[in-house]
Amino acid sequence: MPNNVVVLGTQWGDEGKGKVADLLTAKAGVVVRSQGGNNAGHTLVVGDKKVVVRLVPSGILHSSCQCLIGSGVVVSPEALFTEIEELKQAGFTDAESRIKVSGACAMLLPIHPAIDRGAEKKRGKNAIGTTGRGIGPCYEDKVARRGVRIGDLFDMKRFEERLKSLLDYRNFMLKNYYDEPEVSFESVMENVMRYRERLLAMVTDVSDVIAKARAVGTKVLFEGAQGTFLDIDYGTYPYVTSSNTVAGGCCTGSGAGPLHIDYVLGIAKAYTTRVGGGPFPTELTDEIGKGICTRGKEFGAVTGRPRRAGWYDAVAMRRAVTINSLSGIALMKLDVLDGMDEVKICTAYKLPNGAITELPPLAADDYAMVTPVYETMPGWKESTFGITEFDKLPVNARNYVRRLEELAGVKIAILSTGPERDQTIYIEDPFA
Fold it and tell me: Which Gene Ontology BP terms does the record give (predicted)?
């Protein structure tokens, strides 16, 4: 019986991971975030409540669940405690007491959004489309070994020394390269000290908590952020995020051993979307694409930016299956395709030289040059919204789902037919 399950996105993010993580957390005692920052928004709908979590794991809605933020996450103290206050206002008054943070997390400071915005402005028409929240610059400082970590707050002399060094470097860039105002040491210290005591009270050894949970058979859910094709190594570089969003990142960003992962559940929409710049082979810029966006309410949970929509990309999914070693797929928003005369699936790419490939390229420049090869299937006029049994779906909807499963070579374990918890078809329980 699987005790440790990974939930991650298999497309360009925004696949509906929040709902699935929330559903599975009902069976888990621990849920872990292992990468990303407050640029990742998961929307959870419970009855008449709609909650957006960004840094906090989705398991926070379950009172019996312990929520961990692993060392692979970059943490803005201000964003974290703003989110905790939002949760308290939504009725989750014990949120802060159930969240623990690794002391090895890189700390996202006010200097980082300033650098992020300056860099995007400098790129001009080549802007990546970041959220502007400073995630990339914070990861950059972490890798360059000039950043500060949450654990540094235990020794304020050391923290101040490292902060001064970081600000010297970053302010030089802001002033002389980005032509932006500098961020003062005093303003950053004021921001940090506002949250220091509360933050230190949450620090724990995340790897040890996971190991002890596994030892006693407690189920652990690893909640990914963003999606496979935003991975810094395997995504459409440079139009990617700054962390490893694939299954391996859940291990390095939490301290769990790779052999301790029992099941990897990949989340995919029944179509495809992405936010920001970068190649998108199946993108629909016509009325069909607009209709999908409207029915699917395709706007970013954090930024509110409209998403780009297109047909389901089975070529990209093949890559996602391989590099994540998927055990199963959760297919989301099937109901958005209701009422269409036909639906299309991208089954291959045509290269500029006319060759056909069933695997995607690794470079964004090459990705932008491919032409999708489509397979067309009949649509369905009947509603799938809220259906909870697979056999009650319209026959054409069932055929579509089975074809996606066949193309991926991986079973579809969960099928979502609406935003609510109970608007779900369970075919296989990842924890069973």
Answer: 'de novo' AMP biosynthetic process; IMP metabolic process
Q: What would the CATH number be for the domain defined by 106-199?
A: 1.10.300.10
Q: Which residue has the tokens 């360059």?
A: 144
Best CA proximity match to 52, nearest among 82, 96, 24: 82
State yes or no: 196 annotated in a binding site: no
DSSP 36: B
pLDDT at 303: 61
- The dotted CATH code for 264-426 is 3.90.170.10
- What is residue 413's predicted lDDT score, i.e. its pLDDT? 97
Q: Is 29 annotated as a binding residue?
A: no
* pTM, rounded to two decimals: 0.92
Q: Is 94 a catalytic residue?
A: no
Q: Which of 62, 100, 112, 142 is catalytic?
A: 142
Burial environment of residue 237 by CB neighbours within 10 A (0 to 12, 13 to 18, 19 or more)? middle
CA 18/CA 40 separation, integer angstroms: 10
- Catalytic position from the list 22, 42, 62, 269: 42
The pLDDT of residue 367 is 85
Q: Which of 14, 22, 116, 141 is catalytic?
A: 14
Candidate CATH numbers 3.40.50.300, 3.40.440.10, 3.30.70.890, 2.60.40.10; the one for domain 4-105+202-262: 3.40.440.10
Confirm whether 42 is a catalytic residue. Answer: yes
Nearest to 71 by CA among 102, 38, 98: 102
User: How far apart, in Å, are the Cα atoms of 422 and each of 21, 47, 133?
Assistant: 14, 10, 34
Provide, for the chain, the percentages of residues in helix, strand and coil under a 3-state DSSP scheme, each rounded to the nearest 5.
Answer: 40, 20, 40
DSSP code for 58: G
Quick one: which H or E segment has residue 215?
Answer: helix 206-215
At residue 300, the pLDDT reads 66
Is 146 annotated to bind ligand? no
Q: Which two tokens stand for residue 408?
A: 């991926």
CB 6 within 8 A of CB 220: no
Q: What are phi and psi of 242, to 5 degrees?
A: -110, 15
pLDDT tens track for 376-393: 999 999 999 999 999 999
Q: Is 354 annotated among the ligand-binding residues?
A: no
Query: Per the annotation, does 36 bind a ligand?
Result: no
Is residue 204 annotated as involved in ligand binding? no
Residues contacting 197, CB < 8 A, separation 6+? none
Rounded CA separation 1/262 (Å): 8
Say whether 334 counts as a known binding-site residue: yes
Every domain of the chain and the residues it spans: 4-105+202-262, 106-199, 264-426
Query: In this model, does residue 47 exceed pLDDT 70?
Result: no
